[in-house]
Amino acid sequence: MERGRGRIQISCAANVSLILLLAAGAANAAGGRKPAPFVLPGCSVMFEPGAPCWAEPAPGQKGCCMQGFACERDESSTSRRRCMQLPSARQSFTATAAQACSRRVAPDGDCGSAAGGDGGPDPGACCADGFSCQADRPATDAGAASNGTAAVAYTCKADSAFQPLAAVASSAAQLPPSVPALPSGACSCRVNSSGKPVRRDCPSPWDHPAGATRARPALTVDAAGALTVAATGAPAALRGVNWFGWEVNDRNPGGLKAFCDDNAKSCPPGGEIPPHDYPSAAVGAAGQNAMQIYYWGKRRLTNDFATVAWRMRLLGFNAVRLPFSFAALAQELADDPPVTACVNELDEWIAASKTFDPQLLAAGAAPQLPAAYAYSGMRHPPDAPGQPAACAGPWTAPFLPSYDGPRAGLGSELRLTICNWYLPSGAGVLGLHRFLWQVQYLVSQGFYVILDFHPTSDATDPNAADPNAADPALLAANWGALWGALVQLPSYKASMKGRVIADLINEASKYGCQWDVTCHGCAAGSELVARASDAIRDAEPDALISVNGMGQDGAGGGCGPGAYRGMNWGDGFITNKKTVTKLGLSDPSFLFRYSLADGSARQQLLAPHPYPSSITGWASAYDSKSAARKRWDLSWGKKARGKDRLSDGKTKVPRAAVLLGEFGVLDTGNNTEVNGDTTAWSAADGQWLSTLSKYTRSTLGARASWLVWAWNANSGDTRGIVGPQTTWREVQWTKVRALVRSWGLRPWFCAALPAGDAAAYGCGAGGAPVY
């Protein structure tokens, strides 16, 4: 899902040529012909014997098996089609000057001289086209040759040696194969009197009071297909939120540039930040001069990455899905310092006033913030040892006696800090540096992190598409580079492994992608998933990977496959033989053969994105309880229960772990600039949300994991967990209450309220804390 309406129908043009270079075989040491590498005419990709294959691996490309092999169905393997060796009856044998073809020899057959020993190749033996009579090994039954050397056997061997297809990186790969070192002075500790950053080295994302102590336990998918704690086998559940921004070139998760909380002339009234210049500075010129800071139009509450993450934790979320694009991670951040002087609100005020349900406040509840939820992230103001002297304060100034404006929970003095002082920027700093820093920090603060490759249209060319959806080799190269960089982090093995999930490609259906055919410039989804998964597992064999559905919602019109009415982008895992055949659905059976055949070792989660008709545009009849439950059952519900089969009608689908990667309903409230809870959804959408929550609980039980869309105030159809679009400061409590009462979310106050009050609110008996 995207910001704005965000679900843009665009085609993916293949702009990258994928040509697999074939290595020459070794020379025949005793008279056999040296194999000559070749590419069949018209083929842009050649598949290795026995390898998974596609007739059209990417748009505009022709895939071929070598001579003597054909891309055929192999029901006994984990793949739908492989390059299968043809039987002799289907081979071609062409006589040459060296081979009279008096004796046809099948591949791997003996083509040596009838004399045996060192007699060499049989001149009358004819190998199938694409094979030649080659020295193979010392004969085991012919004794020594006449010259005393070991005898040599000859067999019909392939004329070409192949490189693994997934190892071939496209020349258009967007991420470097290795991450350059982070330059010194890439962070800032202060802004000088001219508003320019004062540079310092970046702190480690683990260098804060919590260190790694808040990192949650590593997860795994167990043999029964359940998401569990790796060390104990205890059931695990993600209660998460999507936080987009990196994929739309914000160079950060969204909201860090939120504005209009300082009562500037261009903004509506209601700002909570003490003014720096309008109508006059709240601390006067003397206060500004003492701090040598003259602008502070931002605030920790909404503009500081670490503080926003803390508010998410206060609300009970334990997972964050970060949409991104590979192109954004490859950009240099020389012109994007995210630092600014900002108001440093009291932690207690942020929790008790801005992240506490006003309904409880109105009823007189005033719980104390439990120590387990206290802020323990990056320091405010910056006070890391060894930083330059120019980073020193002062950071406070008393309010003027005459000042009676907003104080944002500051008491008698203005308290300032530098928002995002710890985030890398500057010459030589890539988006990847900052992104990896943020991923590490979120894990350190108790979040599981889902890395969501989220292709979008180019803002300068709405018809351009991300090339990764068109070129499986490019997608594999980029995912391999990103995961390789991740696992090389010093903290990865001890504190991050099992806490980061790769979400391979978001809602590929909206680009026309189908499971089993290329369509509208998009490669077959089965190959996109297979090759990207393999590239990640080259870096980490047991990495957790989530996969969106695709190809069953009708978005690929003109490519042949039908649609299951009511199906949404990001959903589409139906393999039921009768349903696939009757509706002509794009068939994901390959996904399960390839990725789930060896059970828990594949470490894969299905990640559907259910949405109601108010967002998808389908007729409202498909939102009915019976229609929705049937659709979810066919797509992923039965697979989660281990009760489904592939489209052959025979092969049982191993029980699958399921993570709702996105969900939400249409919010029609006006969240443009009203600082309050503006949530408004229809009764029908409320009923649909209830149907989904009940179905999820009944199907997945304690294992139900979900990621609501979205934190962002600028989400065009669902709006956000915070709003409005100007300030991003106010929690939309209607949504949070629904998540608490129907989806198991546990905000901080559930652990602090008396048991009766917590139960009445919907927290459950005792208000069991998340931590």
From TrEMBL:
<keyword id="KW-0378">Hydrolase</keyword>
<protein>
    <submittedName>
        <fullName>Glycoside hydrolase</fullName>
    </submittedName>
</protein>
<feature type="signal peptide">
    <location>
        <begin position="1"/>
        <end position="29"/>
    </location>
</feature>
<feature type="domain" description="Glycoside hydrolase family 5">
    <location>
        <begin position="438"/>
        <end position="715"/>
    </location>
</feature>
<dbReference type="GO" id="GO:0004553">
    <property type="term" value="F:hydrolase activity, hydrolyzing O-glycosyl compounds"/>
</dbReference>
<dbReference type="GO" id="GO:0000272">
    <property type="term" value="P:polysaccharide catabolic process"/>
</dbReference>
<dbReference type="InterPro" id="IPR001547">
    <property type="entry name" value="Glyco_hydro_5"/>
</dbReference>
<comment type="similarity">
    <text>Belongs to the glycosyl hydrolase 5 (cellulase A) family.</text>
</comment>
<keyword id="KW-0732">Signal</keyword>
<dbReference type="InterPro" id="IPR017853">
    <property type="entry name" value="GH"/>
</dbReference>
<dbReference type="Pfam" id="PF00150">
    <property type="entry name" value="Cellulase"/>
</dbReference>
<keyword id="KW-0326">Glycosidase</keyword>
